[in-house]
Amino acid sequence: MLKLCVSLCLCASVLKFSESLESLRASPSTSGTLKDSSRDSSGTVSSVPSVPSIHTVILSFHTTTGFLFGIIEKQHYLYIELKTNNDMKKRVKKVVFSLLALVLVGILSMGCWIYFGGKMSNFHNYATIGDIPTPSGFERIPGDDAAYATYLRSLPLKERGSRLICYTGEEASYQALNYAVVDIPLLSNYEQCADACIRFRCEYLFRSGKYGSIRFRDVNGKALNYGGGASRQAFERYLKKTYEMASTFSLSRDLKVRPLKDMQPGDIFVYPKPADRPCGHAVMVADVAYNPKTGKKAFLLVQGNTPAQSIHVMRNITNPIRSPWFILDEDSKNLRIDVFNFKAEDLRKF
């Protein structure tokens, strides 16, 4: 483009100069003292066309070429500016495409983690919850109720690749949160999220011989007290009846609020059915670890779900490196735990 402009300007200058020379050649020679006028037959003086001098022609050529090269210079700077803008646009496009590529890779990686992770539960074949290693720098705490914490850590896990199975026998449709299946059979089709929390507490008290401490209330506030002693059959009948009559609402009402900073093994995150949701939810804190350097706590969760399905250790789908541990933010008012949203006051204790 620049070469074309220069060529056109030079051609225009040469043509202008040629026209001036032609004017000089075509003008008649003059003599005498009258150079710029002549007389007609009547003696009247008439003007003769003025002939430009060579100095005038050169000056004209110089002016024309100067003007044209000024235009060329402006076009040149405009060209450089446009080229710079185009280069900048190309760089911006590269950055945008790179960011999009990173986002896509991240989404695909997370999708693979969720999909294949759900198909390969308990990958390391841990025998119990207590065998699952803590995050680097963390140590398990003994807990306010050390015996209950020990019981929860001793819960057996099914072998690698075990799937979530509904009480009715088919596989659960959603396997993504399954880090490891707890090896404990379901007793009823009503054994869902809050019921799994009730189950663990009751199992611990039953094994400890604390039969008189096994008591809950139904949704109407009526007491559900166990009175079957050491009979396993009586105990399981009591659990089935409690599952039918208790819920996240009655469980949250029976428990006391625990500050997040005081979280202990055996605590429960629970919220009853809110007005804008189809159901409430409850998950149990099965283990807690502490980092003495940072002062942070990490916790591990187990849950049942709806429809009634295998109780399992929850996968941390947002942090594959930490999974199945979650790092506690003690100052948070809202906790996003996988697909569930809990408030700070939703942490309860027995």
Could you characterize the architecture of this molecule?
- The chain is built from six helices and 15 strands.
- It is an alpha+beta fold and 350 residues long.
- It folds into two domains: 1-20 and 56-119; 126-349, no CATH class.
- Strands 3, 4, 7, 8, 9, 10, 11, 12 and 15 form a nine-stranded antiparallel β-sheet that branches. It has a two-stranded antiparallel sheet with strand order 1-2.
- Helix 1 runs antiparallel to helix 2 (54-119) and helix 4 (193-207) packs antiparallel against helix 5.
- It is elongated.
Fold blueprint:
Elements: H1 2-26, E1 37-39, E2 45-47, H2 54-119, E3 139-140, H3 146-153, E4 178-181, H4 193-207, E5 215-217, E6 223-225, H5 232-245, H6 248-254, E7 256-257, E8 268-271, E9 281-290, E10 297-303, E11 312-314, E12 326-327, E13 334-337, E14 340-343, E15 347-349
Antiparallel strand pairs: 1-2, 3-9, 4-11, 5-6, 7-15, 8-9, 8-15, 9-10, 10-11, 10-12, 13-14
Question: What is the compact description of this entry?
Answer:
By secondary structure, the protein is of the alpha+beta class. The chain has two domains: 1-20 and 56-119; 126-349, no CATH class. Helix content is 39%, strand content 16%.
Characteristics:
2 domains, 350 residues, two-stranded antiparallel ribbon, single chain
> What gap, in angstroms, lies between the N and C termini?
83 Å
How many individual helices?
6
Estimate the global geometry from the Cα principal axes. Answer: elongated
Query: How many strands, which pairing sense, and closed or not: the largest β-sheet?
Result: 9 strands, antiparallel
The structural domain count equals 2
Rg is 45 Å
Strand coverage percent: 15-25%
User: Strand tally, please?
Assistant: 15
- Helical fraction equals 25-40%
